[in-house]
Design goal:
With 424 residues, the chain is α+β, with helices and mostly antiparallel strands. The chain contains 16 helices and 16 strands. An eight-stranded mixed β-sheet has the order 1-5-6-11-10-9-7-8. The protein has a five-stranded mixed β-sheet with strand order 13-12-14-15-16, with helices on both faces. A three-stranded antiparallel β-sheet has the order 2-4-3. A hairpin with a 5-residue loop joins β3 and β4. α1 packs antiparallel against α5. The protein starts with 18 loop residues before the first helix and ends with a helix. The structure holds adenosine-5'-triphosphate and magnesium ion.
Length: 424
């Protein structure tokens, strides 16, 4: 026998038995976003490598080691998108949507990063991305955070998520801070781990993000970026906090929250959970006003977040509930040629008149017994039975498959639709 070909490590199939929970979450996301005026933008999965190098930054984990980069047939360097912000901005710049305009946008789809696969961390994973352009104030920052909170409530997982909030100030403020942080860390060089030593020259702020418990005390005593903020940055942050307070959104200010990417400024936030082990960040976002100019546009303000769909779905209570919701209400069983034709007509009428009724018409024939078995395996609640007798006298049999207590009955075909309405 020839060997079977397997999927690529870290890239998973979502099998039909689990797709309903995805559809449920996606429907909730779409509804909430649409209600608040966010429009979908559909973007390519592949972009020029340069786009990510210029936006995400050369010395980030993503660009240094996680991108799927390859040469196109003409030699261009292309990359499977590791995130959506850069592509979204590229598209809006290209189509002139950024200058003096406001946009609320979202996209949902796969992202690709060559990471070590583990629970909650994959090489192909799905993100919902939301981006808001052209709004400079903390009001839109608050709107995005509230939008998150609404999603968690609608998905009944709000009690599992906590909001962490920080401000990164402006690039200039960060530059000052960076110098003082590097001074401090150099003074304690012998205490740093290998990762942090490497980052000292390339991305020192990222050291604050270290999960190594042995660095905790050292980092707690490090200078704080908040001491380097100018009045405008402080005011932005204070107004955001006041807005969140006004609507009762709880948050923890975490001065060590720096995010991995280079392009953030001012507001950054993460929604974290204790329920998913090491992969505890479900949603992360921030403001990135400088990125538009960095990609060749005129200055424009922007803020967005990205939400990891796998981690979100892992937080659902009782996800099986949604899988059950796509099982058929009924399966139609037919024996004999007359019944086969009559049954098809009935099924079509039923589908016309009860659009929410899920009916599978058994194909592939077989005895009553084998068709019952199949209906049962499909998880149908009810078998609709058309044999030669029923077909001849215009009746149809109804046999409950999940409920032992209710008996089989035979009704006129003309009453079928009104009867089945009760099953919806
Ligand atoms: P992490 O610290 O977990 O690596 P990140 O900072 O790289 O996250 P972002 O680039 O901000 O993550 O992406 C936003 C969200 O996308 C994350 O909070 C997470 O929910 C999800 N995510 C990121 N990388 C992966 C991955 N490899 N597999 C599954 N989900 C991911
Ligand atoms: Mg990462």
């Amino acid at each position: 026998m020839t060997e079977k070909i397997q999927a690529i490590r870290g890239m998973h199939d979502i099998l039909p038995e689990h797709s309903a929970r995805w559809q449920y979450v996606e429907a909730v996301l779409r509804r909430v976003l649409t209600r608040q005026g966010y429009l979908e933008i559909r973007l390519p999965l592949v972009e020029k490598t340069e786009l990510f190098q210029r936006s995400i930054g050369e010395v980030t984990d993503i660009v240094e080691k996680e991108m799927y980069t390859f040469a196109d047939r003409n030699g261009d360097s292309l990359t499977l998108r590791p995130e959506g912000t850069a592509g979204c901005l590229r598209a809006c710049l290209e189509h002139g949507l950024l200058h003096n305009q406001m946009h609320r946008l979202w996209y949902l789809g796969p992202m690709f990063r060559h990471e070590r696969p583990q629970k909650g961390r994959y090489r192909q994973f799905y993100q919902l991305g939301v981006e808001a352009y052209g709004m400079a104030g903390p009001d839109i920052d608050a709107e995005l955070i509230l939008l998150n909170a609404r999603l968690w409530r609608e998905l009944a997982i709000a009690h599992k998520l906590e909001l962490q909030l920080n401000t990164l100030g402006t690039a200039a403020e960060r530059q000052h801070y960076r110098a003082s942080l590097v001074d401090y860390l150099r003074g304690h060089y012998h205490k740093l781990d290998e990762d942090s030593r490497r980052r000292l020259d390339t991305n020192p702020l990222r050291i604050l993000d270290s999960k190594n418990p042995e660095l905790a005390d050292l980092l707690a005593a490090a200078p704080s970026l908040h001491d380097f903020l100018g009045d405008a940055s402080t005011a932005h942050f204070e107004r955001l906090k006041a807005l969140l307070d006004a609507v009762g959104i709880a948050y923890t200010v975490n001065p060590r929250l720096v995010r991995g990417l280079d392009y953030y400024c001012l507001t950054v936030f993460e929604w974290v959970t204790r329920e998913l082990g090491a992969q505890g960040t479900v949603c992360a976002g921030g403001r990135y006003d400088g990125l538009v100019a960095q990609l060749g546009g005129r200055d424009a303000t922007a803020i967005g977040f990205a939400l990891g769909m796998e981690r979100l779905i892992d937080l659902l209570d009782d996800p099986e509930r949604h899988d059950v919701a796509q099982k058929p209400h009924a399966c139609l069983i037919r024996v004999g040629e007359v019944a086969e034709q009559q049954g098809l007509r009935l099924a079509e009428q039923l589908r016309d008149q009860l659009p929410d009724f899920r009916l599978i018409v058994n194909c592939g024939g077989g005895s009553f017994k084998s068709q019952f078995k199949r209906a049962d395996k499909m998880g149908a609640g009810l078998a609709l039975i058309l044999g030669e007798t029923e077909a001849a006298n215009g009746t149809i049999g109804l046999k409950p498959l999940r409920d032992e207590t209710s008996a089989q009955q035979v009704i006129p075909q003309t009453e079928l639709i009104s009867h089945l309405q009760h099953y919806l």
